[in-house]
Design goal:
single chain, alpha/beta, Rossmann fold, 7-stranded mixed beta sheet, 9 helices, 32% helix, disordered C terminus, binds S-adenosylmethionine
């Protein structure tokens, strides 16, 4: 399938089929990862792997270790976008403790079932797995302290919606700690697609600058992209950090219909600033 003819629905279907199969492999006790040097549980410390059920480790399909960069504290609410078998949710749950909460969001039933089993085996009680798309997060505005994600933004059908949703659910002063595959600036979408498939986390990857602009455009600040290791030629895994400024106003979606028929100005009032 070429990038040109992929719709949101076909991307979700292709990606879901791919990760449903991976979840079943991990549930049977085999490693779901095809490239263990650059993707998967080797990117975690032995100590972290020992904390977790085997199936959560075997289902690890991330390109980094977002909990290591998110600097989680007891009592915080964390959301993991594309939580898969639950590895980062379970690690987060330990860091935020009984007064905190770790949410995992995923669209694939088989991954959600595996994550629930892993959470039960780990005895985690402060976790919640939600079914849905990261392009439309089923949580209220300003409801989480930290958004993490491990190798999933590249799989999203609508990256603009993902960035908008991250900014919406973060509380002012909240932060992101994401790991994802990104392309060097200058690598065209066609060149990215030559290097790997969409479901394989390559063809849909943003460039460094595209990722930065996406975060800036929704008002996030202190944006840092730090490459960690090469995944394929011209494409790296990177740590992406940013914060939502304390004084930031809620985002207004100017493309959304106005149910009350009120004409809002560009600052949310009835005039323009
Ligand atoms: C590469 S795996 C990573 C899983 C997990 N983060 C980890 O590190 O093991 C991608 C996961 O994201 C989920 N996913 C991909 N696109 C998604 C979307 N648009 N909305 C929700 N979940 C998505 C898949 O179902 C899959 O479980």
């Amino acid at each position: 399938m070429t990038l040109e003819i992929m719709t949101t629905e076909s991307i979700h279907e292709t990606v879901r089929d791919h990760y449903a199969a991976a979840a079943l492999v991990a549930a049977q006790g085999d490693c779901a990862c095809s490239n263990p040097e650059t993707i998967g549980s080797q990117l975690y410390s032995a100590l972290e792997r020992d904390e977790l059920p085997d199936a959560a480790v075997l289902a690890s399909l991330g390109c980094g270790n977002p909990t290591a960069v998110a600097d989680l504290h007891p009592g915080e609410r964390v959301l993991d976008l594309g939580s898969g078998g639950g590895i980062d949710v379970l690690l987060s749950a330990r860091r935020v403790g009984p007064t905190g909460r770790a949410f995992g969001l995923d669209m694939t039933d088989e991954m959600l079932a595996l994550a629930q089993r892993n959470a039960a085996e780990a005895g985690a009680t402060n976790v919640e797995f939600l079914k849905g798309h990261i392009e439309a997060i089923p949580l209220p505005a300003a409801s989480v302290d930290v958004v993490i994600s491990n190798c999933v933004v590249n799989l999203a059908a609508d990256k603009t919606a993902v960035f908008r949703e991250i900014a919406r659910v973060l509380r002012p002063g909240g932060r992101i700690g994401i790991t994802d595959i990104v392309a060097e600036d200058g690598l065209s979408p066609a060149q990215r697609a030559e290097r790997g498939s969409f479901a394989g986390c390559i063809a849909g990857a943003l460039s460094m600058t595209e990722f930065r602009i996406g975060l800036e455009s929704v008002g996030l600040a202190n944006i840092r992209l730090t490459p960690t290791h090469t995944v394929v030629e011209g494409m790296v895994s990177a740590i992406i950090q940013a914060t939502k400024p304390v004084g930031s106003l809620p985002l207004i979606d100017l493309s959304a219909p106005d149910p009350a028929g009120t004409q809002l100005g560009c600052c949310g009032g009835d005039g323009c600033c």
